[in-house]
Amino acid sequence: MVLIPDADFNIIIDGEAGILEISMTRIVSARDANQKFSDILGQAAEGETVIITRRGAPVAKLVPYAPTLDGGAWDRLMTMLEKGLPLGGGTFTRDDLYDDR
Predict the structure, then answer these.
(1) How many CB atoms lie under 10 A from the CB of residue 49?
(2) pLDDT digits over 39-75, tens only?
(3) Backbone phi, then psi, for 79, in 5-degree steps?
(4) Domain-by-domain residue ranges, the chain?
(5) What's the CATH class of domain 2-62?
(6) Among candidates 67, 70, 77, 24, which has minimal Cα distance to 47?
(7) What gap in Å lies between CA 59 and CA 32, rounded to an integer?
(8) Is the entire prediction scored with pTM above 0.85?
(9) Strands of 19-96, DSSP E
(10) Is 76 helix (H, G, I), strand (E, B) or coil?
(11) pLDDT-based confidence at residue 98 (cuts at 50, 70, 90)
(12) Phi-psi sector, 56: left (phi>0), alpha (psi -120 to 50), beta
């Protein structure tokens, strides 16, 4: 992965995955991240992504927290998937399917 910092934005190129990302990502060294952790944490809380480097190579990515589905929503989704969606068609058995043989 190559990081090309710029004043207003960063270009991130991942040669293995073939990804080009242009974003408002902040790049900081591990030393700066250690010394200014509270500030960096606040920036992530405000929506900024921070890439932490060691000797110029990226080692970690601090991203804003995105809440996941709550347990109830997940359970409802699984129940719906197990039942299937009513599409208005009739039901049949395996015997019905092979009745014409």
Answers:
(1) 18
(2) 999 988 888 888 899 998 889 999 888 777 677 877 8
(3) -65, -45
(4) 2-62
(5) alpha beta
(6) 24
(7) 14
(8) no
(9) 19-23, 26-29, 50-54, 57-62
(10) helix
(11) confident
(12) left
